[in-house]
Amino acid sequence: MIKEKVNTSLTFEDFKTEVLNDYRIAIVSRECSLLGRKEVLTGKAKFGIFGDGKEVPQLAMAKCFKNGDFRSGYYRDQTFMMAIGELTIEQFFAGLYGNTDIDLEPMSAGRQMGGHFVTHSLNEDGSWKNLTQQKNSSADISPTAGQMPRLLGLAQASKIYRNVPGIPNSDQFSVNGNEIAWGTIGNASTSEGLFFETINAAGVLQVPMVMSVWDDEYGISVHARHQTTKESISEILKGYQRDENSNGFEILKVKGWDYVDLIATYEKAAEIARENHVPVLIHVDQLTQPQGHSSSGSHERYKNAARLAWEKDFDCIRQMKLWMIAINIASPEEIEAIDLEVKKEVFEGKKAAWNAFIGPIVEEQNELVAILERIAVTSDKKEEILRNAATLKSIKSPLKKEIMVVARKTLRLIINEEDKLELSSWITNYIKKTQPKFSSNLFSQSDKNVFSVKEVLPQYPSDATEDTDGRMILRDNFDAIFSKYPETLIFGEDAGNIGDVNQGLEGMQEKYGELRVADVGIREATILGQGIGMALRGLRPIAEIQYLDYLLYAIQIMSDDLATLQYRTVGRQKAPLIIRTRGHRLEGIWHSGSPMGMIINAIRGIHVLVPRNMTQAAGFYNALLECDEPALVIECLNGYRLKEKAPLNYGEFKTPIGVVETLRKGTDITLVSYGSTLRLVEQAAKELFEVGIDCEIIDLQSLLPFDINQDVVKSIAKTNRLLVIDEDLPGGASAYILQQIVEQQDAYNHLDSKPQTLTAKAHRPAYGTDGDYFSKPSAEDIYEKVYEMMHEVNPSKFPSLY
């Protein structure tokens, strides 16, 4: 028996109006799901994954979702987005069709499949909107549980805003830290490690997070008994339940078809999280999935008759109807009238969305047909061109691809004819107009991108007599950063109390507090997630991963979430997170890796900076804090105790991003490298000079972006030879570097010898000094490789060593 819980401040008529409005939203969402599946089956849409069966609990969540709050959810939350006023019928179908117009399809302009939602945090110029005056959704991703790490950071931002004074423009992002981060996930995806890592971290941090688990008893076709111990996520998480003696979660459970109890449950959860910054988990069970997992199959294949009958009876919308009738909210006839009205509304909205999508493409189709028919008149290939035109004209619902295929194949036919200019010009202009709709915004296009920051050189005292450890330069520069930017904070394993494992943050926690310089648990994925979420809310976090090898734990979050954020929102959200790590040469398989090839290919959309010393690294941090883009900074692990000159202008000097530095001028060969290996390159170059080989050494400084001024090819034009030295595996970053130099910079025009690489061995580095020597390039390896290349040029002057 459902107990009625009614807000006593409402009259019955007000209450009735609110309930009927909720029901209407639920029916709109359900009809969109049903009609959306049909659009996939007819071929108008490519794939569909819908939120049917989850409508009523999402209505309850929406009622408690306030301006300033953030959602980090998954791809079945369409009802919620409709209920907060951020998704219309037309936008739902525009997403399904993949409309590339951001005004018509504001979720991703067709870059993500339907069901992936977002709100715009940025104006068109990349500046922040006032996030406290709107309801916010971070941009969804498909990888299961991938939304969880970001959720942690979105919640932690409220804690920072509530407890850290002096943050500039904080009223644009928070009202005293009262905002809740709302997470949603399917029951099966709670099996992912990212879910458990996030739940544990939220319990430790005590942040205002409300986590909803939509439980329909299946994960695609796999029953909960194969997914979750005891078949219940709330049961196995009972150990997280807070009590009077310890922090933890508040864990609530509610049936997904019980409208009244759902509202009461969400109101309770919101009050706990918003006021007390206590995380809450709501296990919403007894939900259904009326059309199965997606449009790729039917759930009749894996659900028995009893389950299917139960799902029909306990469909949340059906139960809501029965309750409405039972307490005289509406009669069956009134409900049926709403249903019929909504069916028509959704159908008309679908039709409008389709016309808006297909109309411009048909205009392009007609434009090309006219060109083809015109050039056919005087062409020797008249019949073939007219056949192509007729084929294109016959397509009722053309795709841009189909238009381009006809245009480009026709161009081949008239390659020797004068009239080809009209067609080739049309194709060129079409690509210029269309390609950005699919390719723009991988990196920031605002006036705060990395190229907007100008180099500022370190200034040194004229009477300096001693150099200092590199780690001291980092420490003093971080001190200047934290003082200059109250919105900055850093966190990582051992980053707080001991000032990181290399003391680059020595004394910073004591000076700036545990919230701004924080220790965290051993959980790299959610360290990244903390950074993403806080950066989405206007803070400037620096997420520290202790060693470069450990980045692999977080690479999926970096690749699927952070790296794609500006791209998949077409520049409407940003998370300018700085990721700090240290790597390259040390000892052993898991502390000395340089998996740069994997990294640079997995995280396009994040800048990858590889300073050779700590002054460079500090300059990168200073530059990045004036930008609105994410970046990975890899400090040299064996450079913290090496001596460097101490600058005077901490916090102000800036290392240019994407600009190489020539460390040594030479005439015989160009040696290109980065990071720790450069010290060996410089040593080898000195020894080579003694035998008459003059090497030019170039420090790349950054891999993404790569040599924006094309200085490497200028060097090769002088030396006519190239060797890339890299401690990544063969074919790793060195292959990328060669592609950039030889192909992108056209260095092949200047080469007199085969461009070559010298890399680490294909295995992981072995332990110890000898392991390093025989696993990665040594000074002797570099010497002999260069000497061998010069032997080929002049064997009499440089006789073979072996």
TrEMBL record:
Keyword annotations: Oxidoreductase, Thiamine pyrophosphate
Chain ranges of the Transketolase-like pyrimidine-binding domain: 468-642
Annotated EC: 1.2.4.4
Pfam family, one: Transket_pyr
Cross-referenced PANTHER family: 2-OXOISOVALERATE DEHYDROGENASE SUBUNIT BETA, MITOCHONDRIAL, 2-OXOISOVALERATE DEHYDROGENASE SUBUNIT BETA-RELATED
Function field: E1 component of the 2-oxoglutarate dehydrogenase (OGDH) complex which catalyzes the decarboxylation of 2-oxoglutarate, the first step in the conversion of 2-oxoglutarate to succinyl-CoA and CO(2).
Record-given protein name: 3-methyl-2-oxobutanoate dehydrogenase (2-methylpropanoyl-transferring)
Protein's organism: Flavobacterium aquariorum
